[in-house]
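writing this on my phone so excuse typos. first protein, seq and then structure
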Amino acid sequence: MEYRRLGSSGLTVPALSFGTGTFGGVGRLSAWGSTDATEARRLVDICLDAGVSMFDSANVYSAGESERVLGQAIKGRRDKVLVSTKGSFRFGDRPNDVGSSRQHLLAAIDGSLERLGTDYIDLFQLHAFDAFMPPEEVLATLDGLVRAGKIRYIGVSNFSGWHLMKSLAVADRYGYPRYVANQTYYSLIGRDYEWELMPLGLDQGIGAVVWSPLGWGRLTGKIRRDQPRPAVSRLPATAEMGPPVPDEHVYRVVDAIDEVARETGKSVSQIALNWLLQRPTVATLIIGARNEAQLRENLGAIGWSLTRDQVARLDAASKVTLPYPYWHQRATFTDRNPPPV
């Protein structure tokens, strides 16, 4: 396993992390999987044997059951793993059971700690931006949790660039801990991260913790031109939660991946993951798996690299028109005005 520094922090993380969205199987996330504690422990065994030592969850995954199952799976070996989880989405019916207020964050952290069976979280990320909360309140609360030893590092997820930059400015102004991770959607069929968040990450030392690196299941090799969609997939049941992608764009990217697959002997998913591992700011990719076979397949993305020519062809196939002002910046860049990454 390759290990990377998480942003500008002192924390080292594996290039692949394991996502536990398949644990628990409650509610609409049951479409992702319903792994119980016994099977979860087996998957954790395989991960640790391969050097995958970071496990990501969220309090809303399966209404807390994902964290509970993860806690059971790592019991007795907490010192061997990094635990990453998230909070801020609604978790209850009361008015304060949502957002990033002091009230909700304190309750969310205590709930996650109880379900995970631990007394600290290695990386806690705000799952979404809360427009009602001043960043001063949010960061002061997180600062207190860090000082109390309940959290070691902090990050965000699903923030816009200005959301994140404003928060970093507040952290610097008051001496609060800085966000060091951005858990972000990024894939060969979803490269929006490159427009603003990647340059911000390079400038501010924010590491990308990539979720859905296989494009919401579209880059597993099961979706191709002129073929029926797979009967078992997360895509039909949770499509409204995922990023929209025109079918023709998916097919064009998969065609290019298939070409590289024939050259390398690797699978579609392994190539899609390896491409991401060569991108700037990427610290770790969160891989998920319903079972041992899927996990071992994804682990095959490590230990080799695509050639420059292969990367260039995948870049070209996945290229889309940038939104303004990024297309203008790219067209008019100079030494003093570099283009978007």
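second protein below, same order as before
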Amino acid sequence: MVLDDLLYERHDTMEGIHQVQLPLPFPLRIVNAYLMRDDDGWTIIDAGLNYPPGQAAWREAFNRYGVDPALIRRIVLTHAHPDHYGMAGWLQSLSGAPVALSAGEAAFARAQWHSDSRAHEITATFFGAHGMPCDLMATVTEDIVNLRLMTHPTPVVLTYLSAGEPLTIGKRVFVPVATPGHSDDHLVFYCAEERLLICGDAVLTKITPNVGLWGRTHGNPLAQFLASLDRLAKLDVALALPGHGPPITRFHERLEELRIHHAERLAAMERAVGAGATAYDVCTAVFPLQELTSHQIRFAMAETLAHLEYLATQRRIELVEHDSGRYSWRRCIC
């Protein structure tokens, strides 16, 4: 039974795996976490955003599935975006369990979410240099600061996961697969024996994963994302458990849909650049900003910049730096 585009029947996917739908205070509304039997205890995959409704949802899940928090053995994260990372420290405080994630995502979390972070200023300044109005820059800064508060307490006991090094959870053996793009060091977890993939935000059903350039992101995130789709296409996947939306049973078809989406988005942004435009101009032309919250506008701007960067590497457009320190884009004349 589908309730609407983002609320759906809770899915107990296989023996010993329970999907936990955690609320979010912005339009995405739900993030999926997974409770997995792990011998005499439990492993959690992804944590949710730390605010009272999220904590209440975890407590309700623990009651439903008979989970003693003291028996949580590990908290595994696909990546360190706040809706996946935010309650990791809170869950650690309940259980004493280590938090496991890639080293790159741990570094991102330290830079982005710790109390002394200035990442909000870096992002707002970056967006401002690409045409975002000052009042919206101020709102972006406030939004990021408020999100940071919902990642505290940050976890203090970390272990690091590496692509290719097996991760055993109960009777299942998962291989972490590097899937950068949505985040710089995103991991998915593949169980070949069951053709099962826990895919975080690398692949989603109802929406497309955000691929953004934030001023701190490494390199060319859209190129990384498309390469990650190619890497995932080599896996035999019957069921993928995503970070948002219902489980994916048409995995390879969904990969192709995502490729087509980005090809269409690149064409639309190339047209919007025209003879010259700022990234914010292009964002305004492609996305219905008047219908979006400031949270969504922030993601639309980052996604615009990622697509423009990709177009530039293909020499379809080029970046123009102005004496003011601001930037625009134009059709490539080189």
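The mean pLDDT is 94. thats all i got for now
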